[in-house]
Every structure is written in C-alpha cells, then in structure tokens.
Amino acid sequence: MFDALSDRFDAIFTRLRGRGRMGEPEVDEVLREIRLALLEADVNFKVVKGLIARIKEQCVGADLSKSLTPAQQVIKIVHDELVQTLGGEALKITYASRPPTVVLMAGLQGSGKTTAAAKLARWFKQQGRNPLLAGADLQRPAAVEQLRVLGGQIDVPVFSEASDPETVATKSVEEARRLGRDVLVVDTAGRLHVDSELMDEMRRISAAVEPDYTFLVVDAMTGQDAVNVAESFHATVAIDGVILSKLDGDARGGAALSVKEVIGRPIAFASVGEKLADFETFHPDRMAGRILGMGDVMTLIEKAEEAYDADAAEQAAAKLAEGRLTLEDFLEQMQQVKKMGPLQGIVGMLPGIPKELKKAEIDDREIARVEAIIRSMTPDERRNPAIINGSRRLRIAKGSGMTTTDVNQLLKQFKEVQKMMKTFGRMPKGRKAMRGVPTMPGLTR
Ligand SMILES: Nc1nc2c(ncn2[C@@H]2O[C@H](COP(=O)(O)OP(=O)(O)OP(=O)(O)O)[C@@H](O)[C@H]2O)c(=O)[nH]1
Ligand SMILES: [Mg+2]
Predict the structure, then answer these.
(1) Protein residue whose Cα sits closest to atom 21 of ligand 1
(2) Average pLDDT, the chain
(3) What is the CATH number of the domain that holds 209?
(4) Whether residue 112 sits in one domain with residue 195
(5) Least confident residue range of 68-77, 187-196, 403-412
(6) Looking at the 3D structure of the chain, how many domains does it have?
(7) Nearest-ligand number for the alpha carbon of 115
(8) Which atom of ligand 1 is nearest to the CA of 139?
(9) What is the pLDDT of residues 312-356, one digit of tens each?
(10) Same domain for 150 and 46?
(11) Which ligand is nearest to the CA of 221?
(12) What's the CATH number where 63 sits?
C-alpha cells in the first residue's frame, strides 16, 4: 500500500535535494508535483486542495530564499502537514468508568468488520483488558459462526442468540456485566451499499448499547466511494474513529487517507493482513513517514519487542559484547527474526534502506536453509566452528541436504557477522537502544 505514492515522493524529494535556494516559482513547481502525486494516489481532491494550500502558506512564510537548506525545510513542512491530514495524534482509548466500555463496529459488507472486531478484541487483551465479543450480525447464518471461530483463536468468548440484532446487542451488555468483562465489541451486519435499512439497523443497535466508541471499518481498496460511505455513516451514528482495513493490499489507498479529513474523526487502527495479529494502532506521524519514505522505525521496534524474548535478547547482547557469539546464538536469533513475520515487511520499515533492497525478495527459504545446516551440526561444532574440517563439512552437507559449498558459505558469513559483532561489542555496554532489536543474520549476505 502507498508504494506508488511513496515512490513519487521519493523522486520529488530527490530532485528537491539537488536544488539550492528556492523562490516562489520553484516552490510552486514542487507543489504541483506533490498535488499530482496525491491525486494519482486517489486522495480526495478537496483534501488535496486544502493540504497543498496549507503547505504553500507555510513554505512562503518560512522564507525559503534565506534558508540554507530549503529542501529539508520543504520536506519537513510536507511531512508535518501530512501528519495533520492523517489525524495528528494517535487515538487513545478512554475506558468507561462503569464497564463495559462498548465498541460498536460499522461498515459496508465485506469491509472487514468481523475480522477487525476479533483483532480489536485481541488488541484489548494485550492492553490487559477482558473483552467480550457480541455477534449482532444475524443477516448471514454464518456470520456469528465466523465470529465464534475468531473468538476461539484468541480465547475471547462470543455472545449471540437467534433473535434480532437489537436484542442481541442489548443482552450482550448485560452478559458482559454478568461475566465481568470490561470491554464489549459488537459486530454488526453490513450491506453492499449504504441504504435506509442498514442505517435504521445501525441507529437502533447504537441506541440500544450506547457505545463509547463507534468505529467505521473502511476497506482501503474501495477508492473514492470510501469518502461518501464515511459521510453517510457519520451522519447516522456519529463515528468516533476509523479502522482502515486491507492496508496490505496494493490499491492506491489515498481515498482511505482522505476519510479523516472529510468526517473529522481520526483513523484509530490499521488492519494490515488476514492474521489476527496484523493490526496496529494508527500513528499518523509514522504513516506519514512511511509514505514519504522515511522508514518506520517505531513500528519496527514495537514489532521486534513483541516477538522478541527480552531475556534471550539480553543474553545474546552480553555475548555479543564479549565477542562470544556462537552458531547456536546465530540460530536462535534467526528463529526470533522468523517470529517477527515476513522479513520483507520489516525491511520496508527500516530507514535508509535503499529502495532496490526494499523491493528485493528476501527469501524466508534462505533462512530455512541456514537453519537446516546449523541443525545438522553437533553442539561442539556450533560452539566452535573452527573444528569443522573437510569430513565434518561433508557430513553436515549430507545431513542438511545441502552442498559443501552452502556449508562453506554459511561459515564464512558467520565469521563476518562475528567480526561485525565484535565491533558492536566495543560500543558502550548496556545501551538501551540496542535492546530488543535483534541482528538479522538473513540480511548480512
Ligand atoms: N488481506 C486482508 N484481508 C482482510 C483484512 N481484513 C479482513 N480481510 C478479509 O476480508 C474478508 C471480509 O472480512 P470480514 O471481516 O468477514 O468482513 P465483514 O465486514 O465482517 O463482512 P460482512 O459481515 O459480510 O459484512 C475476509 O476474507 C477477511 O479475511 C486485512 O486487513 N487484510
Ligand atoms: Mg461480518
């Protein structure tokens, strides 16, 4: 998502950096390019118009002609304005003083409501809450079952019954109180289009549960219609926040980004895949950074911390500092990296990584091969690779189904990592910033 837009900005900024002083004509030219890039990414034209006007106003106010690095200044202005357009700060949930905190899901058919309801429940669990899911989509017989399956995966109970959506919603609040559940996420039925039937149902459910938050799930692939849909829902049930779903798709996505500006409610969460863990708080600054090609270090670190065992990290760090990294550690690190999900996702978030590398296929199978080789070694060999002679090499190659060249290559690679780690080890010890961020053996090739 946003790849095309990100590429465009990359090109614009690269050209911009080559510039010296800038007057109004030069600024206008850059703004024209930015405007076009946004429109091509399907950002709503009214949103683009406002954004460009604000950027221009600031560029002029900044008196770029006197600035030593006008390019940097322009980039910063564009960045800050984009952050504002995306909602400024990330949404913080305020929990109801009298539980449960009720969250109502709204959205068109297939937008990802049910999936997002379960993802949200998982997220609340991670926040130390005790959620209950309610299935108030009684349109499709399979809808409640779908929710139950998802609830089962995250160990969150699901309440529903064969009556009507309003009754289910009302009873689910009572059920949450009875079970001592402090958050209630209510899934609702969607329609293909916004129609009076859907709006009536939403209005009735909303009146029945008096939600603390009504989240509108918007499929990032829907294009300009997303803006109209958001306006209709907002007029009916007062949306508190937007959940952008399917951000992992390859649509241009700009329309979804316009929703905040149009209804004046923030994007609260981003759904970035089909797995229940593919869900994150939406951070406007990080998203702006990602779009403008500045990487997304914070999300990366959060992801790493979530997946990475802190103790193992500290032990590994201590070994690194002493230059005692063994192939066993190497293997362990690799498994940790694997836990973080497809490498490509992570590499894309790193700042300063050349575009070509971001696009390059980073092959998880490569990691599997390295793993196979290390697993075919004896513990002694893993700890002290120097003892691996010709016959051992042959045995390891056979055992792992690889060639001796593969084994040699890995050993050479490991030596390089070891050397690199020794350099790291000379850095002051206990650097907090390094904690939880594993080194990535798969990337040292
Ligand atoms: N790739 C991807 N697929 C998603 C995402 N969110 C949902 N999906 C998929 O989109 C499809 C529809 O999702 P649902 O959660 O069932 O959508 P819904 O809004 O509840 O649909 P209705 O109940 O029919 O209105 C499912 O196949 C999901 O797996 C996402 O973030 N990324
Ligand atoms: Mg559903």
Answers:
(1) 110
(2) 80
(3) 3.40.50.300
(4) yes
(5) 68-77
(6) 3
(7) 1
(8) 23
(9) 656 666 665 566 667 777 777 666 666 655 555 555 555 444 555
(10) no
(11) 1
(12) 1.20.120.140
The rounded Å distance from CA 140 to ligand 2 centre is 9
Which residues surround the ion ligand 2 when the cut-off is CB under 5 Å?
113-114
Handedness of CA 141, 147, 152, 157 (dihedral sign): negative
Peptide bond into 438 cis (omega under 30): no
**Final residue of a domain: which of 283, 311, 326?**
283
Q: Whose CA is nearest to atom 29 of ligand 1?
A: 274
Output the CA 279–ligand 2 centroid distance in Å. 17
Strands 213-219 and 183-188 come out as unpaired
Mark whether 18 and 112 lie in a shared domain. no
Pocket of ligand 1, beta carbon within 6 A: 107, 109-115, 137, 143, 190, 245-246, 248, 271-274
Give the position, in ligand 1's atom list, of the atom nearest the Cα of 110: 21
The ligand 1 atom at the shortest distance from the C-alpha of residue 190 is 25
| 81 and 106 both lie in a single domain | no
Q: Which of 248, 283, 318 represents a domain boundary (last residue)?
A: 283
Is 91 inside a domain boundary?
A: no
Whether residue 51 is found in the same domain as residue 128: no
Please choose from 221, 274, 275 the residue to mutate so as to test ligand 1's pocket, defined by most ligand atoms within 8 A of CB.
Answer: 274
- Is 95 part of a structural domain of the chain? no
Predicted pLDDT of residue 7: 84
- Residue 92, in any domain of the structure: no
Query: How far does residue 434's CA lie from ligand 2's centre (Å)?
Result: 42
Contact 297, 272 (CB under 8 A): no
Q: What's the CATH code of the domain at 409?
A: 1.10.260.30
Report the alpha-carbon distance of residue 31 to residue 55 in Å, rounded. 8
289: Cα separation from own chain's centroid: 13
Domain identity same for 232 and 116: yes
CA–CA distance, 358 with 350 (Å, rounded to integer): 9
- Give pTM, 2 decimals: 0.68
Query: Which atom, in ligand 1's list, is nearest to the CA of 245?
Result: 31
Claim to verify: residue 279 and residue 428 sit in the same structural domain = no
356 and 437 fall within a common domain = yes
**Nearest C-alpha to atom 1 of ligand 1 is from which residue?**
273
pLDDT in tens, 283-323: 888 888 877 766 544 454 455 555 555 556 566 666 655 66
Contacts 24+ apart (CB under 8 A), 167-174: 168/134, 168/135, 168/136, 168/138, 169/134, 169/136, 169/205, 169/208, 169/209, 170/208, 170/209, 172/132, 172/134, 172/136, 172/209, 173/100, 173/102, 173/209
112 Cα: distance to centroid of ligand 2 (angstroms): 7
Backbone phi, psi, residue 67, to 5° = -75, 145
Between the two ends of the chain, the Cα-to-Cα distance in Å is: 27
Mutate to test the pocket of ligand 1, among 1, 105, 114, 115 (most ligand atoms within 8 A of CB): 115
Measured in Å, residue 150 CA sits from the centre of ligand 2 at 11
Min mean pLDDT across 68-77, 142-151, 184-193 is at 68-77
Q: State the residue range of the domain holding 29.
A: 3-85
Kindly indicate the confidence band of residue 428, based on its pLDDT and cuts at 50, 70 and 90.
very low
Is residue 292, in this structure, part of any structural domain at all?
A: no
